[in-house]
Amino acid sequence: MERYQTQYRTITVANSTVMRGVYGWMGGGLFLTAFVAMITASSPVLLQAILGNRLLFYALVFGELGLVIAISGAINRISSATASALFLLYAALNGVTMSTIFVAYTQSSIASTFLVTAGMFGAMSLYGYLTKSDLSSWGSFLFMGLVGVVIASLVNIFLQSPMVSWVMSICGVLVFTGLTAYDTQRIKQMGGSGRKGAILGALTLYLDFINMFLLLLRFFGNRR
């Protein structure tokens, strides 16, 4: 009995250490994104370069996508230092592209939406970490929901329907809210291996947070 209790305590401590690393890297990534976004938004030259050149903007977007794929797919083949650098580079590039929201929305509404997002994310991540229920059954449902939201959003680029956009935003918020709890439990159960495991988990939760924030901004953001 004592042996099992010792093993349980060891696993619990290991999980807590991994999750602290995950939240630490995620928080650092969000801080870097916010810092770069504000610096970029405060520079008319940089904003003009991004907003006035679609090729540059899409190059940044595809660059971010490439970094996510690189980190996720090559995490076992790259060093911890490389994984750290790629994650920070991704967070910085995301800050550059997200600087455009300061043109569309007021700073006060961006700040209030960030706080709402932080509250929702914190509650769902805590639920995913503490719950005894198995959330693995959520995975396929949430993935199908995510695919549906992406496809509908792409179609709506041509339809330009405010109603479709509104419905997809609501569905998107629900999907990423669920993913926050699901991903947190999955990261906790997987454990991870040192800094690289923490970075991969941080990237997953970072993406949940950012997408939730951007979707909620459509509801709570006051346009300029």
UniProtKB/TrEMBL annotation:
Q: Which Pfam families match?
A: Bax1-I (PF01027)
Q: Give the superkingdom in one word.
A: Bacteria
Membrane topology per the entry is:
Multi-pass membrane protein
**GO annotations of cellular component type:** plasma membrane
Q: Which CDD domains match?
A: BI-1-like_bacterial
Keywords, alphabetical:
Membrane, Transmembrane, Transmembrane helix
Q: Where is this gene product found?
A: Membrane
Q: Which residues cross the membrane?
A: 21-43, 55-75, 87-105, 111-129, 141-159, 165-185, 197-220
User: Belongs to which family?
Assistant: Belongs to the BI1 family.
Name of the protein this chain belongs to: Bax inhibitor-1/YccA family protein
State the organism named in the record: Geomonas terrae
Top-down, what is the taxonomic lineage of the species of origin? Bacteria, Pseudomonadati, Thermodesulfobacteriota, Desulfuromonadia, Geobacterales
